[in-house]
User: Which sequence fits this backbone?
C-alpha cells in the first residue's frame, strides 16, 4: 500500500530530524519537512501530505497537472524550488504559496507585478544562493546576493523576503557540504545585521545531506528519494 511505505519512510526521517536537531540544541518542530514530488504520482503526493509540512515542485508545468487534481480540502502549502522563467511567473503565483528560487532582480520584479495584478499584499519568496561554486547550479553568487536583496527591497513593494535557499555541492566530501550550509547561515546573519531583514527560513538539505543541514541551522529540508522510494524487504 502506497501510504504505508511512505509513512514508514517519513517516520524514520522524523527520527533523524529529531536526532540532528538535538545535536545542534534545536527543537525538531523548528525543522519543516518538504516532500519533493518531481516525477512521483499524485496518489503518492496526497499520501505523503498527511505526514509532511510542504509540497515541493521543480517545474511549473508538472505542478499544474497535479494541482488541477489536488484535493481542495488538502491545505498543504506548495513551494516552487526549481528555476522559474519570467514568462511562467503568473502561472506559478496561482499554484505556489512561496517561490524559493529567486536569483535575479528581473525575476523578483516579475513576481512583484504579478502580485499587484492578483491583489496579493505580500508574496513570500526565498533568495537562492549558489554556495557550491558549481556552474551547473542556479542561484546568485554569494558576493552579489546583498545587492540583489537591496534591489528587491527598493523596487518590489509586494514581495516579502522570508529566507534563503541553497543546494550543496555534488561531492562526497562531507566537510565541503557542511561548509556550504554554514556559509548560507552566515550570509543570513550578515543580511540580518546589514539590511534589517529577519530571514527566518533557511531551506537547505536534501535526501543525502539533510542531517548535516539541520546541524547547520536548516529550517526546511527538501526530500524526495528518502520519502518516495519503497525499500526492498
Assistant:
Amino acid at each position: 500500500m502506497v501510504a504505508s511505505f511512505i509513512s514508514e519512510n517519513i517516520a524514520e526521517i522524523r527520527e533523524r530530524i529529531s536526532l540532528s536537531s538535538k545535536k545542534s540544541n534545536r527543537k525538531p518542530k523548528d525543522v519543516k519537512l518538504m516532500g519533493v514530488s518531481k516525477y512521483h504520482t499524485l496518489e503518492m503526493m496526497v499520501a505523503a501530505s498527511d505526514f509532511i509540512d510542504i509540497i515541493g515542485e521543480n517545474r511549473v508545468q508538472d505542478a499544474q497537472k497535479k494541482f488541477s487534481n489536488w484535493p481542495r480540502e488538502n491545505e498543504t502549502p506548495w513551494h516552487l524550488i526549481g528555476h522559474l522563467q519570467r514568462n511562467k511567473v503568473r502561472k506559478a503565483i496561482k499554484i505556489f504559496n512561496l517561490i524559493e528560487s529567486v536569483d535575479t532582480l528581473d525575476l523578483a520584479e516579475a513576481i512583484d507585478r504579478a502580485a499587484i495584478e492578483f491583489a496579493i499584499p505580500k508574496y513570500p519568496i526565498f533568495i537562492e544562493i549558489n554556495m557550491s561554486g558549481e556552474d551547473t547550479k542556479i542561484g546568485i553568487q554569494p558576493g552579489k546576493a546583498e545587492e540583489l536583496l537591496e534591489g528587491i527591497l527598493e523596487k518590489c513593494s509586494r514581495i516579502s523576503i522570508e529566507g534563503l535557499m541553497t543546494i550543496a555541492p555534488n561531492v562526497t566530501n562531507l566537510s565541503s557540504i557542511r561548509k556550504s550550509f554554514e556559509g548560507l547561515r552566515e550570509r543570513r546573519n550578515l543580511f540580518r545585521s546589514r539590511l534589517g531583514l529577519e530571514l527566518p527560513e533557511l531551506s537547505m538539505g536534501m535526501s543525502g545531506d539533510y542531517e548535516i543541514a539541520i546541524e547547520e541551522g536548516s529550517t526546511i529540508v527538501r526530500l524526495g528519494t528518502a520519502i518516495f522510494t519503497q525499500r526492498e524487504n
Remarks:
- Residues 2-228 form a domain with the TIM Barrel fold (CATH 3.20.20.10).
- The mean pLDDT is 96.
- The first helix runs from residue 2 to 23.
- The chain has one domain: 2-228.
